[in-house]
Amino acid sequence: MADHSPKSPSGLFVPSPEIAHKSRVPDYEGLYARAVADPLSFWEERARLLSFVRPHHTLLGWNPETFEGRWLVGAQGNISFNALDRHVAEGHGTKVALIWSGDGGEEKALTYAELLEKTIRFAQALRSQGVGKGDRVAIFLPPTPDQVVAMLACARLGAIHAVVFSGFSQAALRSRLEDFEPKVLVTADIAFRRGKRVPLLDTARKAREGAGSVTSLIIVGREGAFGGELLSGEHRLEDLLDRVRHEAPLPPEPMGADDPLFVLYTSGTTGKPKGIVHMHLGYMLGTFATTREIFDIRDSDVYFCVADPGWITGHSYVVYGPLLNRATVLLAEGTPEYPDAGRHWSLIERHRVSIYYSTPTTIRLLMRQGDEWPAKFDLGSLRILGSVGEPLNPEAWFWFHRVTGGHLPILDTWWQTETGMIMITPFVSTPEKPGSAGRPFPGVVAEVVDPATGREVKPGESGTVVIRTPWPSMFRTVFRDPERYRKYWTEIPGAFFSGDSARRDEDGFFFFLGRVDDVIKVAGHRLGTAEIESALITHPHIAEAAAIGKPHDLKGEIIKVFVVLHPHAEKNPPGHDEIKKHVRTELGGIAEPHEIDIVVSLPKTRSGKIMRRVLKAREMGLPEGDLSTLED
Q1: Domain residues of the chain, as ranges?
Q2: Residue 342 in this model has a pLDDT that exceeds 90
Q3: 57 forms bridges with which residues in the sheet?
């Protein structure tokens, strides 16, 4: 058993030598030094653990002019093959690949052989609708096995998928469809959340009205075959599967260094969400290696990540990374407090979960429910804990540590949609500091710099986090917006600009402080202030709007909005509930403002840019900083 008692005034929690020795990374310092000295050899060793139709002739082709990182140049392979076929061929077809727990408590398990069979059939169904290599497919499904299968089926065909979180409204889904222009949209008739039926198909149909590229809408029956009326261009998945039932198995499409795997939309600082493009082979290498070595994956592990596959964590560390490592993955639909606050603890006990990768929001929510809930369950199967999405505050860290036995490592990880893989993290074998994301993954060169000069700041000083060298799962571009991609690399010349601020202590540990741009993280979801503001001003009575994030004990941040009304509405202003409902309709429930102020004007620069930092400073009682550009 590891000893995670404080060992020094700096607050280090040190693993036992026995655990460190048995882990996949027993000597972090030595491995990191070797990886920085020769990063290509480091990644080459990990690429050899994967299967390819044709090997690469160049591991990395880096273009400093276009900032393109081409990984595994010359190789041909497929992530679906490596996640499924390879394991079945090696005799592991009977191993459980996926355990699914539904919102209502229903459960299903699929072996690797069964998951492969479902993936092949789903790929054939997509092909019957004209989908092939390079075609685009949007997936609007709840977190069920069908969502995982749809992703793997697209990868098998060489099609590019865009998974859209099933909690989004029709307006938010439509904006992504209009940009992505998929040939096929896959959705479900209904979803469930806290026991309530959510009419997902209605949302998809309304969104499709503004997306002329969608020639086929495939409907997955959430509780059996969809029995409703089909509209033009709609197909029941069950009908398509029946038609291809006797077709020969579909082999995976060979994919190369320049073939995209998916586009994932994430909020930015403009009103339009940005489509982050990840490439097939490089993403495969990065997620495979980080899952294997950070989570110390073993054949006996049951791995539970709480993320929805509609977000990047679900892509990398629910679907692709764990399956590439032949893990048994637990996928849970619903929320951690439904039907009661014992939901996650019960799942851990029942399925003997050994790795639990959670979020600060979930941990704080469970902490608020009290110690009695985890105390009701046998958590003895756990050996590794993790957290992702935002910094895990020390109070929650200590609670999580204590109620799970007081000896388990907590891997508080930092990475982004753009990075595709974990970049900064503790390891099972390394010391931990509550509130810190640890140190960089081997092969990753991360620094905290002064944004004005690009030079590294002194230990203890805050600055902007940058990445100095390419990494395998780096994104290639922003979909249809290459100039937006260039800004990541030109903000601070010679480095990837993360947009996050942090300080690094004298031991090299990173402590993240938040975003340097106007992005709000609510319960682990990134929402652009501009996207929220764009939704607000579509209300007929609202002329202008500004949104900020405020710290919150449970959600990390909440949304507060300031709205300026049209003159005609000032005598009869809209109520707060009406404004909240409007945002829910436009963007979805996760974007609903928690607080609303109706104001006469907003602080702006002379060029008309809203100074959100001034609003936030006033709200928090902090210094407002330089006001020389303030118009009034």
Answers
A1: 117-243, 527-620
A2: yes
A3: none
**Helix or strand run (H / E) with residue 201:** helix 200-208
Which of 249, 270, 205, 253 has its CA nearest to residue 231?
A: 205
Q: Which CATH number is correct for 117-243, 3.30.413.10, 3.40.50.980, 3.40.50.10070, 3.40.50.720?
A: 3.40.50.980
Structure tokens at 1: 């058993």
Pick among 3.40.50.150, 3.30.300.30, 2.40.50.140, 3.30.499.10: CATH of 527-620: 3.30.300.30
Q: 369: helix, coil or strand? A: helix
- Tell me how far apart the 2 most distant CA atoms of the chain are, in Å: 73
What are the helix (H) ranges across 356-459? Answer: 360-369, 372-375, 394-403
Alpha helices in 25-85 (DSSP H): 28-37, 39-47, 79-80
- Which helix (H) or strand (E) segment is 546 a member of? strand 542-552
Instruction: List the structure tokens of 382.
Output: 């756990």
Q: What is the pLDDT of residues 171-214, one digit of tens each?
A: 999 999 999 999 999 999 999 999 999 999 999 999 999 899 99
How many Å apart are CA 359 and CA 339, to the nearest integer? 19
Q: What tokens were used for 305?
A: 């990540």
Instruction: Quote the distance between the C-alpha of residue 147 and its chain's center.
Output: 15
Give the whole-angstrom CA distance, residue 323 versus residue 150. 14
255: its two tokens? 């994919």
Alpha-carbon separation of residue 169 from 73, 86, 176, 586 (angstroms): 40, 38, 11, 6
Q: What confidence tens digit (pLDDT) does each residue in 19-53 have? A: 888 999 999 999 999 999 999 999 999 999 999 99
CA distance 324 to 571: 61
Segment 308-330 mean pLDDT: 97
Separation CA 342–CA 401 (nearest Å): 17
Q: Is the pLDDT of residue 225 over 90?
A: no
Buried b / exposed e over 447-473, threshold 16 CB at 10 Å, is bbbeeeebeebeeeeebbbbbebbbbb
Tokens 């756990």 map to which residue? 382
Residue 606 is predicted with a pLDDT of 47
Helix (H) or strand (E) holding 631: none
Confidence grade of residue 526 (pLDDT, cut at 50, 70, 90): low
Distance of alpha carbon 392 from its chain centroid, rounded? 16
- Is 215 a residue whose pLDDT tops 90? yes
**Mean confidence (pLDDT) of the chain:** 92
Contact 377, 348 (CB under 8 A): yes
**One-letter identity of residue 506:** E
Backbone angles phi, psi at 293, to 5 degrees: -95, -35
pLDDT for residue 434 is more than 60: yes
- Nearest Cα residue to 547 out of 606, 599, 605, 596: 596
Separation between Cα atoms, residue 329 and residue 109, nearest integer Å: 10
Whether the predicted pLDDT of 389 surpasses 90:
no
Number of H helices, E strands in the chain: 21, 30
Region 511-516: mean pLDDT is: 81
